Structure formats: C-alpha cells, structure tokens
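In practice, a research group might receive sequence data for several interacting partners and want a quick structural hypothesis before committing to experiments. The following worked case mirrors that situation: the sequences arrive first, and a predicted assembly follows.
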Amino acid sequence: AQSVTQPDIHITVSEGASLELRCNYSYGATPYLFWYVQSPGQGLQLLLKYFSGDTLVQGIKGFEAEFKRSQSSFNLRKPSVHWSDAAEYFCAVGASGTYKYIFGTGTRLKVLA
Amino acid sequence: GAGVSQSPSNKVTEKGKDVELRCDPISGHTALYWYRQSLGQGLEFLIYFQGNSAPDKSGLPSDRFSAERTGGSVSTLTIQRTQQEDSAVYLCASSLEAGAVYEQYFGPGTRLTVT
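A structural hypothesis for the assembly, expressed as tokens:
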C-alpha cells in the first residue's frame, strides 16, 4: 500500500541550529515528492518538490531536500533555523498518471530563541 | 493574484445539523480537491473535481458527505447530520490541471467543530 511516514511528531531546535525532518515513503511507481509547510491558521504552502533529475532539491525559505531512492527517503534540511520556521511540515507523495497526493502525518517544529 | 479562499473560516454546529463549506479556487484552475485534517492525522483525501465532474469520490467517509462544483469554479462540501467525529479542519486545494505534476495550492481551511 502507498504510504508516507514522518517518524517525528514533534521536533524542537534552537534558533540558528541545523534542522533535518525525516520522510519515508512506500510507493510502487517512481514517486513525485513534496514538502509543504503549514503555519498556524494558514493553508499549506509548497516548500519544494522532486520529480526527477538532480536528487538534491532547493526550495524556498532556504530549505533543501534530498531524494534517496535506496532508502525511500526524502528528508528536509535547513542549515540554520529561524524563529519564523516554527510550523508544521508535511511530506507528500504522488506519481505520474495520478492526481492524488498522499500526505504524512506531519512534524511540528518548535524553535527556541 | 488571489489564492484559494474558503468560507467560513470557523464553524461551530450542533450534532445532527447540516453544514456547507465553500471553496473558491484560483481562477483558471480546472482541478479542485477537498481534504480533511484531523488532530494528529495527516491530510485525508476526500474528493477531487476535474471541471464540474468528480471522477473520484472514494475518499468521502460516509454518505452524509457530498460535494458539488458549479461553473468549473466554486465548490461546496456538504455534511448532513453532523457527528462529533466530523470535527476537523477541511482544506480545499486547486491546481491548473488534475495530476500530481501540477502543484496544489491550498486554502486556509474551515475549522468545523461539532458540539
């Protein structure tokens, strides 16, 4: 069955520290992979996406993610976290020929001043 | 340009009442999606529209849930005889066309509380 796992429900980091949010997927086809961010009371905003090609993807707000097919992972990273990055982050997977995204359960990020 | 808008932003209703949630997609977007976000859960797909037709209603949790889209634009999600387990945030998204390659743009959601 198709699924997306975000193992960390909550993560707390200090401002200026590096960040890595984990995402593992199970998908039969070649996946399209996405990271979205949801700030309180807001809708989801796309941070970055991977369809094919270079496995290291750059996104907005200084985020990047690396697709590792052998590990079925698409982890999100940021070298230095800002207080405004506190939000909930969702990993999602889709595939060519489909219309539906499958979302993980999200990781809530807290940033300490 | 304007993004996806949803109304109301918050809705409190009594168990057993019917509710209607509205979504205005981005102009020109032919595909429209409804998701439900419950506490501690990811986003649960409910239904999608391509134009005015809904090829996939498989995510609707029960026959109390229905949705329509008129004029290829505005969509309404209706929940009849609401139950407490319907309490959640209902998110709408639209994309230029239906297909995972097209970015889905999300609205701010409607928070539904059933008392």
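Before designing any experiment, note the following. Residues 63 and 80 of chain B are 9 Å apart (CA to CA). The mean pLDDT of chain B is 93.
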